[in-house]
Amino acid sequence: MLKIKGNLRGELLTLYKEKGIALEGSILKLIDCGSDEELSNYIKEVSEKDREIRKKRLEITKQIQAQNIELKELADKNEEHKKQLEIALKEAEDAKKKIELAKKEVEQDLNILQQKTQNQLVESIVKVSLSIIVGIAITVTIMFFVKEDNQIVESAWSNMFGILLTNSFSIIGTIMGVKYASGGKGMVPVQTCKYKP
Amino acid sequence: MIDSILLVDDENLFHMVFEDACSLLDISLSLKAINSADEAEIYFKEIVEKNKRKPDVIFVDLNIIGSSFDGIELIRKINYDYGDGVVIGIISSSSDDTEISRALKAGAQFWMVKSDEIEPRLEDFKKDFEGYVTRINTFKIYK
Q1: Interface contacts (A, B; CB < 8 Å)
Q2: Which of A 23-52 lie inside 8 A of B, CB atoms?
Q3: Pick the CATH number of B2-142 from 3.40.50.2300, 3.90.1150.10, 3.30.390.50, 2.120.10.30
Q4: Chain A within 8 Å of B65 (Cβ-Cβ)?
Q5: C-alpha–C-alpha distance, residues B57 and A81, integer Å
Q6: Three-state SS at B62
């Protein structure tokens, strides 16, 4: 323990009385006042003052500390939200890519289906046309052999043969042209015969 | 009353809280606060080299930002490299069992949970201090 005597004692007490400057901190806990009542009162007073200052400072620092913790928690939450948003954005972009891919596939499928339908239509038209022409040709040939009036039958058969040949070449030409134009991928436009029997 | 305490913690604001709490509760006469584990190691090297007086108690934060090793490693170094007679423990906001077990193995004598209301824990610690010095007390967690 410390003992304060003589001039130092007097100077400390005067300094405090005149200018309010006093000892503070742990040193106050080490001073032995003995029977010196005035010094004892001084130590008691400045110790109390020191305690009050420390209490206030402790309260303030605790408040700031709590605020800092809150701010840190908010910053952490913001960071977490940011990460979640980035993940959601990435997922949305992936979904968009998937949709675009699916759209392309559907368009491709639709295109193939359309081409297939067109080809089937052309095929049906060609088949029906050829059947009609061949059917009429056969009928006219039979009539030629059965009936005696061959003049009409001959001209009819001749016309039929002409139409058959013309249409055949027309159909073959159209098919070849379309194949050439579509690069061998099949026929795209619907083709019909130029001449009807 | 404890003569001297060493606090190793990266948070300057907590230095003030701890110092004021210790002063108000008449726990210690002097307190030295250090910001990193590396600084604390240098401080202890100096104590050993210059034969200075060691602090009576050391409170070490678990995760000391800006240090090349954590608080538990610092406890291990102080206990095994710079040695005896120092009451040493962790002060941390965490109370993770694995970390507590690590601290115990490193030679920590106590674990104090850091929060707004540190005063009651410090008062309890003050009561137990002599038991730690004489090594009568076993490892204790102040929650």
Answers
A1: 35
A2: 25-26, 29-30, 51
A3: 3.40.50.2300
A4: no
A5: 42
A6: coil
Spatial distance between the Cα atoms of A137 and A161, rounded to a whole number of angstroms: 7
Flag whether residue A89 sits within 8 Å of chain B, measured between CB atoms. Answer: no
Using left for φ > 0, alpha for ψ between -120 and 50, and beta otherwise, residue A5 falls in beta
Q: 0.80 exceeded by the pTM?
A: no
B49-71 residue pLDDT tens: 888 888 999 999 999 998 989 99
Give the largest CA-CA distance in chain A: 167
Question: Are A54 and B1 in contact (CB < 8 Å)?
Answer: no
Q: What is the mean pLDDT of residues A20-35?
A: 87
The answer to whether the Cβ–Cβ distance between A29 and B26 falls below 8 Å is yes
**A54-72 pLDDT tens trace:** 999 999 999 998 898 899 9
Q: Testing the interface with A: which of B2, B3, B16, B27 to mutate, by most A Cβ within 10 A? A: B16
